[in-house]
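Annex B. Sample input.
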Amino acid sequence: MEKPTQSESEKRIYFIMNNTSGAWLKVSDEYSRLTDAMRALERLISRYPFARLGGMTLR
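Annex B, continued. Sample output.
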């Protein structure tokens, strides 16, 4: 199976979001590497039990 590739003009960022009163709010810095974002989620999950990993592609 082929891995999806990103063009050089696209950049992926990751961050941690928490659901507060029905709204998803960003509660972390932005990370360019998925592994860094996952480590941040592990650290923040005790403080934000409903936290989720989010991300977006910048063009």
